[in-house]
Amino acid sequence: MAKQADRFALYQQAVQEPEHEVAFLDRIFRRQFARPATILREDFCGAFSVCCHWVRGRPNRQAIGVDLDPKALAWGKQHNLAKLPIAAQERITLLKRDVRRVAGTKADIVAAQNFSFFTFHTRRELCSYFRAAYRNLGPQGMLALDIMGGYETFKEDLRETRRLRNFRYQWEQARFDPISHRGTFNIHFLFPDGSEIPKAFTYHWRLWTIPEIRELLAQAGFPRSDVYWEGTNQKTGKGNGVFRTRQKAPSDPAWIAYIIAIKK
Ligand SMILES: C[S@@+](CC[C@H](N)C(=O)[O-])C[C@H]1O[C@@H](n2cnc3c(N)ncnc32)[C@H](O)[C@@H]1O
Question: Whose alpha carbon is nearest atom 13 of ligand 1?
């Protein structure tokens, strides 16, 4: 089963919820600027499923996807782009480029999902990314980042497994170094016949904190940033997928939040 499986397809099934991302981004933008957003740039887009859902939503929407990995972009073209009507396909531009080196069309929203900016390990690198995002937004625009944290994210050798229809998705926090705040994280896929795709994806990330991010956003020119904290499902005690602005939050063992940086 592992030999026949496609790691990009499994990743998309297990990790991404582009319809929720698009609905969230659209709602926050409307609330901020009292108009709908038209142009979305998906940084670190991988197979650009958010771009595809964005353009599918309304006929005047455009999307720009940026990623360095030609394999992920090619997979997205074959499996995501090809499923869209031709008119919608033409409203997506793909750039195989470093997110810090993009120039051109200004977007209403720049979105960096699944903690991808953790790939930048120094303040200098991260600030240079935030400056690029600022430059690539129109006069009214927002940068949306998701971020994970909590004291459980500092644990080593921690594996969390989730069962999907034909496979299990496993997230491993392999290493964490408290001095540099850098960690190694792996995604493994496990199959009912006992076969596995170990380390289907590996990330070497710096675990940034919310205040560090907001300070760097301000340094890069964003006059304001808001934190959207996830509510709790009272029955399960887990996140309920509803994110609202908060000034203070409980010290949950593991949390996911959005930081929305506003350029006005
Ligand atoms: C964690 S994956 C996220 C994929 C997708 N955005 C998602 O939400 O699932 C990180 C992606 O960032 C890309 N990447 C890493 N560094 C990059 C850079 N400096 N510029 C552009 N893409 C980069 C990788 O190729 C990879 O596809």
Answer: 44
For residue 68 and ligand 1, the question of a CB distance below 6 A is answered with yes
Residue type, 4: Q
Q: In this predicted model, what pLDDT tens digit does every residue of 248-260 receive, in sequence order?
A: 999 999 999 999 9
Q: Answer yes or no: do 195 and 216 share one domain.
A: no
Q: Please indicate, yes or no, whether residues 156 and 218 belong to a single structural domain of this protein.
A: no
Tokens of 212: 């560090």
Q: Which of 53, 96, 116 most suits a substitution to test ligand 1, by most atoms within 8 Å of the C-beta?
A: 116
Best mutation site among 15, 67, 203 for ligand 1 pocket (most ligand atoms within 8 Å of CB): 67
Domain contains 112: yes
pLDDT one-digit tens code per residue, 22-65: 999 999 999 999 999 999 999 999 999 999 999 999 999 999 99
Strands 182-190 and 196-206: antiparallel
Residues 179 and 193 reside in one and the same domain: yes
Boundaries of domain holding 202: 151-206
Residues 13 and 91 in one domain: yes
Contact 132, 44 (CB under 8 A): no
pTM of the model: 0.96
